[in-house]
Amino acid sequence: MPKRALIEHRPWLMAAIIAAGAYYFLSDNPIGGIWLMMLKGTGVALLAVYALRRAGGKDGNLLALALGLSACGDMLIEIEFLYGGTAFFLSHVAAIALYLRNPRGTPTGSQKAAGVALLLLTPVVSWLLSGDLQVGLYALALGGMAAAAWLSRFPRYRVGVGAVLFVISDLLIFSRMGPLDMQAIPDLLVWPIYFLGQFLIATGVVQTLRAERLATAWQR
């Protein structure tokens, strides 16, 4: 991201990082209840505001929608796993719509193979880890989102990697549901991996859309 852009919009990004960090360190705090739930949703919600203000247009709105639905999922999952999963499912649908609107022109064979692997392996591994068919069905959207991100024209080593991190964080969550005992690893890693993934997605997409808008304005 250009230095000037980062400085101009640092309040939204820094506020998102601070909120996410605060939730991570306060997640076991007695404050609990609705305040902790709202704090959990604030980090990604601020990324959605950043995307809406910085990118704009149909693509920017789709990104903001995907992030906003994820923020809702972050909060609703504290009430009921099904509610949170539904919000995240809709978030993936919005993200898939964004990425399909912005395909990579000529993906290589290895890039296509990686996309197919993300699409097919994500639901299979999710089902094997959780032992839950509904989780496997949800993960079809999760894998579709990651595959579409990987094959989109957005920076692969920011947006694509961010989507893969999202998948990893969910797989760690699903590992809690099945026979695989990873002890405290999911508790330590799920949130930072998830938020880093969302941060990379938000900044990567916004950087691309903003740069193109400025280039078009300059040509005029």
TrEMBL record:
Keywords: Membrane, Transmembrane, Transmembrane helix. It is found in: Membrane. InterPro entries: TMEM86B-like (IPR012506). It is a multi-pass membrane protein. Its main location: membrane. The keyword Transmembrane applies. It comes from the Bacteria. The chain crosses the membrane at residues 12-27, 33-52, 59-77, 83-100, 112-129, 135-152, 159-177, 189-209. One of its GO terms (molecular function) is hydrolase activity. Pfam families: YhhN. GO terms for cellular component: membrane. Belongs to the TMEM86 family. This is Lysoplasmalogenase. It comes from Parerythrobacter jejuensis.
